[in-house]
């Protein structure tokens, strides 16, 4: 309710047109594609992985607070400047950008939490969830399952998708294991 008032003024204002919705969806796609290409390039170029992105993978078992644990240069170039550039190029409103980037951070933290919680809404709507990203942080999955935080289509198209299955552990919880071909 408050968000609508801040973005549109009142309930009666017709501030969001159908064209605006399609433009914003296209903008989100652009932001997502840029993020995936930036993330995967850090694995393809040895120097970038060895000196920059490997810091994030020092956390072999991901946990929520480690989601944004990365090299300062990666944080500046990809997260800060990349986000700012995506915002400027996409033409989305400031309010939409704030909502989108907050949602992206929450999703990223959830993906790194290592928790498969019942009723987690992210697991219902996104194929790349906690288990999907856990595979990426495993030694054998390091060069797979890049797509984070939203859609896994690029991993499928680029051949970097690694299937997994969830195994219920006797002591409780689940573990993401690679599927044997």
TrEMBL record:
Question: What keywords are annotated for this sequence in UniProt?
Answer: Membrane, Transmembrane, Transmembrane helix
Q: Name one GO cellular component term.
A: membrane
In Pfam terms, one family for this protein is FA_hydroxylase
Listed GO biological process terms = lipid biosynthetic process
Q: Does the keyword tRNA-binding apply?
A: no
Give the molecular function GO annotations.
iron ion binding; oxidoreductase activity
Where does the record say this protein resides?
Membrane
> What sequence ranges are listed for the domain Fatty acid hydroxylase?
38-160
Q: Which residues form the signal peptide?
A: none
User: Where is it mostly found?
Assistant: membrane
Protein family (similarity comment): Belongs to the sterol desaturase family.
Q: What is this protein called?
A: Fatty acid hydroxylase domain-containing protein
Q: Which organism is it from?
A: Citrus clementina
């Amino acid at each position: 309710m408050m968000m609508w008032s801040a973005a549109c003024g009142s309930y009666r204002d017709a501030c969001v047109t159908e064209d605006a919705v399609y433009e914003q969806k296209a903008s989100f796609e652009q932001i997502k594609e840029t993020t995936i290409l930036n993330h995967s390039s850090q694995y393809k170029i040895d120097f970038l992985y060895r000196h920059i992105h490997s810091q994030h993978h020092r956390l072999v078992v991901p946990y929520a607070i480690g989601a944004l644990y990365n090299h300062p240069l990666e944080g500046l170039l990809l997260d800060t400047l990349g986000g700012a550039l995506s915002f400027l190029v996409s033409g989305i409103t400031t309010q939409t950008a704030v909502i989108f980037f907050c949602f992206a951070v929450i999703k990223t933290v959830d993906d790194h939490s290592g928790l498969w919680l019942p009723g987690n809404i992210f697991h219902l709507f996104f194929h790349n969830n906690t288990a999907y990203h856990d595979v990426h942080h495993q030694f054998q999955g390091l060069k797979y399952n890049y797509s984070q935080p939203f859609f896994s289509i690029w991993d499928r198209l680029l051949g970097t998708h690694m299937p997994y299955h969830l195994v219920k552990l006797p002591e409780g919880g689940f573990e993401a294991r690679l599927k044997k071909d």
